[in-house]
Amino acid sequence: MSSYPLLFQPLDLGFTQLKNRVIMGSMHTGLEEAEKGFERAAAYYGARARGGVGLIVTGGIMPNPESGSLHMTHSLETPEMEANHRLITDAVHKEGGKICMQILHEGRYAFNPKCVAPSPIAAPISPYTPEELTHEGVLGEINNFIKAAAFAKRAGYDGVEVMGSEGYFINEFLAPRTNHRTDQWGGSLENRMRLPVSVVEGIRENVGEDFIIIYRLSMLDLVEDGSPFSEVLVVGAAIEKAGANIINTGIGWHEARIPTIATSVPRSAFTWVSAKFKAQANIPVITSNRINSPEEAERVLKRGDADMISMARPFLADPEFVNKASENRADEINTCIGCNQACLDHLFEGKEASCLVNPWACRETEHIKTLTIHDASSALKIAVIGAGPAGLSFATEAASRGHKVSLFDAADKIGGQFNIAKQIPGKEEFYETLRYYNRQIELTGVELHLNTRVDSEQLNQAGFDHVVLATGVVPRTLNIAGNDRPNVLSYLDVLRDKKPVGKRVAIIGAGGIGFDVAEYLLHDNNASRSVDVAPEQQSVEDFTASWGIDRELVQPGSLMGKGKVQLSADRELFLLQRKVGKVGADLGKTTGWIHRSELLRHGVKMMNGLEYLSIDDEGLHLRNSAADSEASTDSVLAVDTIVICAGQEPLQELTEGLSVPYTLIGGANIAAGLDAKRAIKQGAELAASL
Ligand code: FAD
Ligand code: NAP
Ligand code: SF4
What we know:
By secondary structure, the chain is α/β, with parallel strands linked by helices. Helices cover 31% and strands 17% of the residues. The chain has three domains: 20-367, TIM Barrel (Alpha-Beta Barrel); 374-475 and 650-689, 3-Layer(aba) Sandwich (Rossmann fold), CATH 3.40.50; 488-646, FAD/NAD(P)-binding domain.
């Protein structure tokens, strides 16, 4: 008997059946644009179909090249392109899966000087002002959607998803924010929804009844002059009548300044609005956003919030998610931690997507090529020193390939710096990665030695073929007068050792850890709480209130007071950096704004262009050269505690006197710019190369 009976109930659409309630949501990966991209995409989707997912939705495919961004132009509009897509549909069907192609027209979000939209209004996140479509132009775009759906059917897809959400082209027709037209495509709601309804009607007429049409409808625009929920309900009913089989509920336009999928968003934070929509829908409703475990998905279905659960990033993290859940092996799932570091951040940097916790994601063909399983004759006896992300990744990957691996850590638990990171409010998902690795250690037979500080002499004596040094980093200290005073702390003193911190605090260094320390100090973190048990995440009620989301659903775009809620804080914090640029400019592309906004809304003061001079009874003495004038000014920041978050140095002490062949990985290799993404990837790739 499955632990998730609702999740594993089939869904009957009349002409076809879905084997469970799990949808792999649409996500662009950059594969289609890569060399041999469609072969790679076929392997990527095929692996997820093999992993048991009920229905896959592809990343967005353009109805024509102008409707996409310059770096993302894969369209489906010729028979040659159809043949590429066949590779994908064949791979999925071979594994017993079903797949729909998402038709995405980016409208004014297209990073493309030729972009088009209902009205010539540039998006705040794009440099391009779109061209306003003529009446004939609108009809042409509708026709492009219909043609793309027809090609999708010929290419073997089981259906299409029409992307009508997230502030893209179709959504732009619906909202007064972006539709200022006065012809039959603008003005009244009836006119504004004419385009989405025509698209669905046209597709249905063309593809017949035995083809899935999912329509993704924005529930909460979360922008000023967005659609009110009363209009969303009317549009939903019309789309249903036009021939859609399923409604997928979308949350937030891309330009919204409210987080919707980042790790700090509580799990299933938006299913309440899908529930309000479902109450009046007659066709199945999908919900999504920050649902990353089968338990959470089952809870959402049990509450009756939706009929199906869409997860996208969780399938980058673990293609076997569904099979593991159905076989009661949920503790083996590699959980998506919502960090965006290797998926969305990569795409915004013009790179292919992958996954921080699963560096083989989108590299399935390469992974298969390296998959040698060693027997007794070729297996190596390997010692791994350090059970942080780098060491854990190497050890479990190497052991799963047949090597005999002993993993040592001086600490009483695995995880290295993740044990510190997991304590930051909003980073509770790191507990899941540690649970995953603990289970992998058991499954792969890694021999784990905790509370064991190792030295090079021991390693020389023990008969290992190879030693992997994953010993991590040491925090950088600050070389200024007064740095040895008791009120000068490192981030480890604060986060790991829980040393007392005053009410006015200067944080030196505004990298990821400086921001995290600020976040930690803003909240009342119960120092006596056991760090072995994950704390509760912020409640959905507190989250929506703190970001000004209108739970009553009466405001346009469901946004209260422009979404700018000022929050109180127990401490006065100063976040400092030497660079003259924006504080936090190096944070993740898709999450940095959230961290900055969170601290600013709590009144944290950010200062740049600083030189740190000394520390004494008065506080921290500074020289500020960021001011517009050429002269620099000296001042003293009267603070009672100074926390140093000025980066790290590699810990390489074990290399001295080591006579066994060794490799340095993670922070022990290079500390500058290190993050868990690099640590885990380096560990996995080294294991694959041995
Ligand atoms: P570590 O995690 O430092 O592990 C090294 C291990 O080696 C330790 O467990 C140590 O006990 C052990 N060790 C050292 N010497 C010996 C010895 N002689 N014998 C036995 N054991 C030894 N990264 C991200 O990508 N995203 C984030 O959001 C993020 N947030 C962070 C938040 C905070 C507050 C902190 C501190 C870090 C964060 N990081 C984040 C960084 C990330 O945790 C590190 O990049 C990662 O942990 C580095 O992994 P590692 O395996 O190289 O080293
Ligand atoms: P970091 O990002 O390199 O930041 C260190 C900061 O300290 C820099 O902003 C630097 O800014 C300052 N600094 C460096 N040397 C200094 C010196 N000698 N004196 C004074 N200031 C100095 O490193 P980190 O914050 O320690 O984070 C470590 C790694 O963990 C990072 O690579 C990061 O990616 C990762 N991490 C990621 C996240 C995340 O959310 N993605 C969160 C936490 C950590 P100035 O030189 O301008 O002062
Ligand atoms: Fe999830 Fe982070 Fe992997 Fe993206 S990179 S899929 S957010 S764990």
